[in-house]
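Honest question from a wet-lab person: if I give you the sequences of every part of a complex, can you actually get the arrangement of the whole thing, not just the pieces? Trying it with mine:
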Amino acid sequence: GQQLNQSPQSMFIQEGEDVSMNCTSSSIFNTWLWYKQEPGEGPVLLIALYKAGELTSNGRLTAQFGITRKDSFLNISASIPSDVGIYFCAGHNYGQNFVFGPGTRLSVLP
Amino acid sequence: NAGVTQTPKFRVLKTGQSMTLLCAQDMNHEYMYWYRQDPGMGLRLIHYSVGEGTTAKGEVPDGYNVSRLKKQNFLLGLESAAPSQTSVYFCASGTGYTGELFFGEGSRLTVL
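Yes, you can. This is the full assembly:
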């Protein structure tokens, strides 16, 4: 089936560092979503993007909807230990099912 | 706010046994989904429903059945469990319009 590519696959960073990850697709999406999953929990929606070029922030998180509608980026500023988890991107078009990326696993070292 | 609730949270089955996972949402969402999550495979769609009384197959539907008799509930059944169905199962719901999807906490199933 349709797949999204996420990079990096995993990353280890020091507390206080900024983090960047991205998600790419061969198809166009009308909505891009970013989720975070902590161990033993379900994915939690962080940011939803609805318009090409849109830049949206949620606290220390900032996400952008790529102008080509085929990619999206998530940045985390000044990372803290509770940022640890797996970050998933998802693409969606109305009337179709969601397409998820394989996730980026983030580890934050104190 | 309960959101999306899944029961049970954990279950161990023997090969050939049957069971049902229950998903309940209190957000009046039309769309409901069942996913399975396996290491390195991401989230894969099993079945979904676009409204009460409707169901449709997703990416990996074999070995599973679903029912949506009430708008707030979406049941996932395994008629004859197999070890390949050992996984973490997630239910999710959404309006289908905004594109936002809300997940339950997951149900961890082990088939021996």
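Two things worth pointing out. The mean pLDDT of chain A is 94. The two ends of chain A are 39 Å apart (CA to CA).
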